[in-house]
Design goal:
Structural class: alpha/beta
Helix content: 10-25%
Radius of gyration: 30 Å
Largest sheet: 20 strands, parallel
Distance between the termini: 87 Å
Oligomer: single chain
């Protein structure tokens, strides 16, 4: 953000999400490769937040532990009791009681809000020193769940209060301007206002939206910023999540097209939030990118290929029907063909693995050819072992490489070999049962089988 002000992001993630009908916590369901909660945390990172605090229920602590391990600066507050959204923000008091600047309150189940919308929310707040907070609003006529935003008739840029649908009069329910839930609050007022919130008569919960009327009562102004419905869309059901995925994929594809990526069929190209492209990339129909994929210049990914955690350097070709698992690194000009699977493997420049092959925990040098049907046996039932293949090695078809194994530079492996010992540079390695030929045996066998068939 360009504002010269401290920004403290609070992400509310304590809801149970029972409507998802899943044992997985709602905020841990994935959208474009990332759990919903990570979308909110990424938004905070994009805004260069001074601090980020995640509010969770006690049961969610194990699920978010990896997020803390990945980002030691992430604060986690626990909402011990499910006592509403105001209670959730109050759970951050020990962390943020002395914070200065602006608190931006986000919801982990609202992943589609874009950084520019959040930046505008804060800008609207800072535009007027008398403004205590700004809410995000949207047009949603007749919506059955969103609270209605009541504006000051004399100053329509100001909000007087928000009324929940269950508490609204027929006239209020008919209003189309609705509360999206997200808000920016000056830190100096946040906990003072929250301390005055009382439990709702019907639900006994503490509503965060009640601080709007309390701010007005204290002579403070409340502003609002309008957002598109998609930005403010919350995820409550599997249907919502599927709808959000369609929207997010549309955004990611549009961004890729703007970067010059050629997608032969955009509707069957699935991208992750962090998929990265170079120049002149071509993607053929029906390709899937999981997390952590980087494609260099002039790469091509052919149909029905699945990539995750892979780096492709310039001029690499993958597929069709290829699977690249995490830890795969394809160097310049490498080729991976149909029905090939690579895991934790580096494939050197201009090396080829054209078909029907599995390489795991392997390093392959430059200018190598790995024949069809080759597999690395990297797992002994207890531990993983590595295969190292130096430059200019030729591995014949249907070879079994039992790790740990080292093939020296320029070595040849004969087709159908099973190798358990290292191969010296420039050596030819063969492991075959000697071929046996019995003259006339085929004719005698055919006659015997024919006679047996006729007698039956």
């Amino acid at each position: 953000m360009s504002h010269n002000v401290s920004l403290h992001v609070i992400v509310l993630a304590a809801g149970h999400g029972t409507r998802m009908r899943s044992e997985i916590p709602k905020v841990m369901h994935t959208l474009s490769g990332f759990p919903l909660v990570e979308h909110a945390l990424l938004a905070a990172k994009n805004l260069k937040a001074t601090s980020t605090t995640l509010v969770v229920s006690p049961s969610l602590l194990p699920s978010v532990a990896p997020l803390q391990e990945k980002d030691s600066a992430l604060n986690v507050a626990v909402q011990q009791d499910a006592n509403g959204t105001a209670g959730a923000v109050l759970a951050t008091k020990d962390i943020l009681s002395h914070a200065q600047g602006v608190a931006l309150i986000l919801f982990a189940d609202t992943p589609l809000v874009r950084p520019q919308v959040l930046s505008a929310l804060v800008s609207t707040l800072l535009a007027d020193p008398k403004r205590a907070l700004t809410i995000l609003a949207l047009e949603a006529p007749n919506h059955p769940h969103y609270g209605r935003v009541i504006l000051d008739p004399d100053h329509p840029e100001r909000v007087t209060r928000i009324v929940e649908v269950k508490n609204a009069t027929p006239e209020e329910e008919a209003l189309s301007l609705c509360n999206a839930g997200l808000m920016a609050v000056r830190c100096e007022y946040l906990f003072e206002l929250l301390s005055q919130v009382t439990p709702n008569v019907l639900t006994k919960e503490l509503y965060l939206t009640d601080i709007i009327a309390l701010a007005r009562k204290a002579g403070l102004f409340v502003g609002w910023e309008k957002a598109d419905f998609t930005d403010a869309m919350g995820i409550n059901t599997r249907k919502d999540l599927a709808t959000a995925e369609i929207i997010m994929q549309g955004r990611l594809r549009e961004k890729a097209l703007d970067q010059g990526v050629m997608m032969v069929d955009v509707t069957t190209t699935y991208l992750s939030l962090d998929t990265t492209f170079g120049r002149d990339v071509i993607l053929y129909p029906h390709v899937y990118f999981g997390r952590g994929v980087t494609l260099g210049d002039e790469t091509q990914v052919h149909s029905f290929s699945h990539l995750e955690g892979a780096i492709l350097e310039k001029g690499v070709s993958v597929g069709p029907y290829a699977r690249l698992r995490p830890g795969t690194h394809l160097k310049e000009g490498a080729r991976v063909g149909n029905f090939v699977e690579l895991k934790a493997t580096t494939l050197g420049a201009h090396s080829k693995v054209n078909h029907l092959t599995y390489l795991g925990d392997s390093t392959v040098g430059d200018n190598c050819n790995i024949g069809a049907g080759t597999i690395t046996c990297n797992y002994d039932g207890q531990n993983k072992h590595k295969t190292h293949i130096e430059d200019d090695v030729f591995v014949g078809s249907n070879s079994t490489l039992i790790a740990p194994l080292h093939l020296g530079r320029g070595a040849y492996v004969g087709a159908g070999s099973t190798l358990t010992q290292n191969v010296a540079p420039g050596a030819l390695a063969l492991s075959r049962t000697p071929q046996k030929e019995i003259p006339g045996a085929a004719l005698r066998l055919q006659a015997r089988l024919s006679s047996k068939k006729e007698s039956s």
